Amino acid sequence: MRYGIFADVHSNLEALDAVIEAYKNEAIDRYLCVGDLVGYAVNPRECIKKVKALAAATVAGNHDWASVGLFSFENFNPLAKEALFWTKTRLDEEERSHLESLKLVYKNQDLTLVHGTLDNPAGFGYMSNGYIAEETFRILETNICFIGHTHCPGVFIKNPAEGIVSRQEESLDIEPGNSYIINVGSVGQPRDGDPRAAYCIYDTARKRIQIKRVDYDAQATRKKIVDLGLPEFLGDRFILGR
Ligand code: ZN
Questions:
Q1: Whole-model pTM above 0.85?
Q2: 2-240: which CATH architecture?
Q3: Which residues touch 118 (CB under 8 Å, ≥6 apart)?
């Protein structure tokens, strides 16, 4: 099985289209989305529709839940809040009920998906260090968990001998006995200094995980935000990758 796993689209249609196009060369059998379809950019409806058609499963992100009243706006900074207020006014009944229907955790025989952390999925905490990762490893029932939320790709590996180590890898071979938390990075608003859209491939037969990047027209995404009168910094982030 070759999984295409991606997260944090954030209404960025240009980035999503580039990733979908790039995946066409990867012989993907099943797509999975690790949350945050909406927020920040200005094509929430198109992104919900495309991901709904593409992904076999999508878990809820904090922006998904906030835009339908399931998570408090008070948890967001003023810019994110403004984008969320705007998003909320754009969704129709069907789109809202789709976001409401998203579960916090998805699990199958190969993997687990959660947007933030597994120990408190509804709290949407950031998996920012090994101590936080330990809590997820403790209750993880598969050997691999895919996450998003920080918008920075990275890997936590739990090895019975060495404990938990954190790494930045573009390609990772899965070894028996280890457990893995893979942050797949962000399609629509990367924050690791690389503005290219991030997407992940998990090949279960080769036991290999790859994080890839693809260029897209971030200037076009930025212009849409500026033209709508939304805060300019929301647009600049797409160019900066921050
Ligand atoms: Zn996000």
A1: yes
A2: 4-Layer Sandwich (3.60)
A3: 105, 112, 135, 136, 139, 140, 145
